[in-house]
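Shift notes (night). Ran Succinylglutamate desuccinylase while the centrifuge was going.
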Amino acid sequence: MTSSAKENALVEALLACKLASLPLPADVKGTWLAEGVLQLIPAEPWQQATVISAGIHGNETAPIEMLLRILADISSGKQPLHQAILVVFGNLPSMRANKRYLHNDMNRLFGGRHAQAKPGNESRRAAQLEQVVADFFASTAPQSQSNRLHLDLHTAIRGSRFAQFSLIPFHRHAYHPSFFALQEACGLDAVVQHTAPGGTFSNFTSDAFGAQSCTLELGKALPFGQNDLTQFATTEAALRALIAGETLPTRDKAPVRYFSVAESIIKSDARFTLNLDPQAENFTELDVGYEIASQPGKHWTVSAKAPYILFPNAGVALGLRAGMLLQPASPCLSLPD
Ligand SMILES: [Zn+2]
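Came back to this:
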């Protein structure tokens, strides 16, 4: 069987919910905490508890395939596992439908927001994922209290000036230098610091469990089987080293660019307009003084301090974010006084 045929067989197995019968080596204890959620704990002592999630948006397939490959290698014994991990395949029904979501964008529903959403596939699943992550961190607490990680793997809808980047949720606890070393080793081009809380999965794990969390945007969303996984090889190598407890690979790229969110553009009126080419890439530098968006009573103008646009989307529901303006930040986000 070729490796791509093998991956497709794995994807099919996952989608048919047959992964629960995945064999594991004798020194790894596997427990399915929910459909598509596998806890793996090595028999020998370990220090770090890491949640690795993919498919919170069902059509973002490359990270799902990457995670399946790693899981297959753990199963065969080829991939060493020396840390506790929780592997989460986020939204199985939307993966089967090759859709971002069925009823609600799941990555806006965490931190209890699912209780306010119209009940549906994603509100149920977000509530369940909050519970299984709580169970995982509770059961691994003696070893991992100060060493919890969460990497939520995504691909973006639009093109990006920086092909691979991460978003670090707003947090009050310290993020360790080792976490930024991981960002570097993953080959990311940019790291963005949120400056306000949100309903993302990574915001939830950071806020509720003091984890070092981020959302990784690893490229453009394509259907299963059409991903060029070599694009993701650096991130995959870093993840494999992380869970093996090995030294992270050395970065072989220009330094990471750091940004923080200066302003969120919140759409709160049906007459909202976003004055931007729909094809505009993430991190496009806009002209100073340009009116990027408007709605009755509010105009957003680009300032010299924060000229970069991220995730522009005029189509969001009222009350949600239609884009963010970014400012450059110092390395590892040590905030200026
Ligand atoms: Zn996504």
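The chain has two domains: 3-244, 263-326. The radius of gyration is 20 Å.
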